[in-house]
Amino acid sequence: MKTINIILLGPPGAGKGTAAKMIAKKYSIPQISTGDIFREAVKKQTELGKRVKTIMEKGELVPDELTISLVKERLAQPDTERGYILDGFPRTVKQADELSKFQSIKAVINFNISEEEIIRRLSGRRVCKNCGAIYHITDYPPKKEGICDKCGGELYQRDDDKIEAIKKRLVVYNEQTAPLIDYYREKGLLYDINMSTPPEKITPENSFMQIEEIFKKLDLV
Ligand code: AP5
């Protein structure tokens, strides 16, 4: 049986969540976003949510042990049998080392994007409180301001999409997550996609096409 066990790697705002939703829908495999899991816990005010709330608002990383055990538990669920998309995990070399002990990853898709474009995208991002659909106030606005086209839910701005938190997230990314690019390149698993270089306009659709090309090349689908 073919399995699509992949990691989406890239800085905040690169478009990982948007692409993950498209892949999940087309190939009927789960998007496993540690950020979404943590945000849901914060919303529901669970013990986990209380632990991670301030860390996330500041744009810092949740401790490795906590994140790793949560992902281990999630990957043991039966819906991952035909594959999964890891979105936002691993984010440190420690997380990647631990993951390699119990999972076999087929490909790591690395989203390349400039910091200028990241700031522009994140400061304009809006997310549906109800279904998690992602919009941008100028690039991908909803039909009716503040309302989700898909489910009618209310759109909001994430606490960590304020400029100070964005800058902190970029520092954290460069220090702790960017080393994973070489880590996976050395293992022969890294595939780059371009998310911001002109002259071609990058849209969610053509990013998805770039990812599908990689899947076909690797005979994953
Ligand atoms: P997380 O939720 O993972 O945030 P992130 O990695 O910073 O990524 P984002 O969700 O901000 O961006 P994205 O790449 O998904 O972009 P999107 O598709 O939305 O993590 C949040 C926090 O949780 C962390 O700071 C940390 O505290 C904690 N955490 C999570 N995982 C952790 C871990 N493993 N270890 C420790 N802590 C962890 O797109 C952005 C915008 O661009 C949108 O407006 C969209 O419309 C637009 N857009 C998307 N794609 C395109 C495109 N192709 N062309 C044009 N515009 C596009």
Question: In percent, how helical is the residue content?
Answer: 40-55%
Predict the CATH topology.
Rossmann fold
Name every ligand kind in the structure: BIS(adenosine)-5'-pentaphosphate
- Please mark out the parts with pLDDT under 50 across 5 or more consecutive residues, or reply none: none
Q: How many beta-strand runs? A: 8
Secondary-structure element pattern, one letter each: EHEHHHEHEHEEEHHEH
Q: Enumerate the strands of the largest sheet in spatial order, edge to edge or round the barrel.
A: 2-3-1-4-8
- Counting helices, strands and paired strands, the structural category is alpha/beta
CATH class value: Alpha Beta
- Count of structural domains: 1
Write down the overall geometry.
globular
Number of helices: 9
Write out key terms for the chains shown.
five-stranded parallel sheet; 9 helices; three-stranded antiparallel sheet; Rossmann fold; binds BIS(adenosine)-5'-pentaphosphate
What report would you give on this structure?
Helix 1 (16-27) crosses helix 9 and helix 4 (64-75) packs parallel to helix 5. Helix content is 47%, strand content 15%. The protein is α/β, with parallel strands linked by helices and 221 residues long. The protein has helices at 16-27, 34-43, 47-58, 64-75, 93-102, 115-124, 163-177, 179-186, 204-217; strands at residues 4-9, 31-33, 83-87, 107-112, 125-128, 134-136, 155-156, 190-194. The longest helix has 15 residues, at 163-177. It contains nine helices and eight strands. Strand 5 and strand 6 form a beta hairpin. It has a five-stranded parallel sheet, with helices on both faces. A three-stranded antiparallel sheet has the order 6-5-7. The protein has one domain: P-loop containing nucleotide triphosphate hydrolases (Rossmann fold). Residues 10, 12-18, 33-35, 38, 55-56, 59-62, 67, 88-89, 91, 95, 121, 124-125, 134-136, 139-140, 160, 169, 195, 202-204, 207 line the site of BIS(adenosine)-5'-pentaphosphate.
